Amino acid sequence: MSGYVATLPEAYERSMGRWSRLLAARLLDVLDLPRGAAVLDAGCGTGALAEAVAARDPAARITGVDVSEPFLAAARARVPGATFRQGDLVRLAEPDAAHDAAISLLVLQFVADRTAAVAEMARVTRPGGLVAAAMWDFVGGFPFLRAFADGIAATEPDGEAFRARYLGDSVGSPGRLSALLEGAGLEGVAERDLAIRQDFADFDDLWQPWLTGQGIAGAYIAALDEARRARVEALTRRAYLAGAPDGPRSFVAVARLATGRVPRH
User: pLDDT tens, 48-57?
Assistant: First the structure.
């Protein structure tokens, strides 16, 4: 993974993990997996998707793979009935056709060889099985993070490079995920939006978890000196407040979901 920090699961849960939980539930509303399915959670992180699958179908056979051992430990504690192991998505240790579905939730943006990762997901899925990938549309579908990235680009010496890394290669932009699935030879590929809404109690509810250095924004903020961090905090606060007193806010985020089936022939 590039530009992404995933070492502190509890901190991650307070920052981006809360978004992942909401999206996992929305994703399963759409996918409607068959009961008892063998599901590969490709890039399982702290187990948001695995937990959602297990809650809906205790008979599901869930395998999670991730590069981060601390995140895997959190996932094991969260979903004790699932199997979790460390691995690289571009070289999965799973046998051919071992799963009914392979799902990647909010991961492909940070995989160096996305083509290889999707090909591996297809390889380990049975003929007729489902391959699905979802990723935030950072450019057009995540307004608050877009405002944050634009603010960084306007005020910080390395801001343009940060925004380019965050937004310039957004695999969640329309058409990107479906192209990856089609390139892997999947059939019936379709793409759609998934929208969720995240609530915050106040500005600190958003900002404080970012100071732990998790994720792209957190890693950037943690690397700043005190003066620059204060400047970034001030511009982020202005974006959050939007001219109103501090307090609850609710932000929409849109992910793109692409699905396809492994050919039967």
Answer: 999 999 999 9
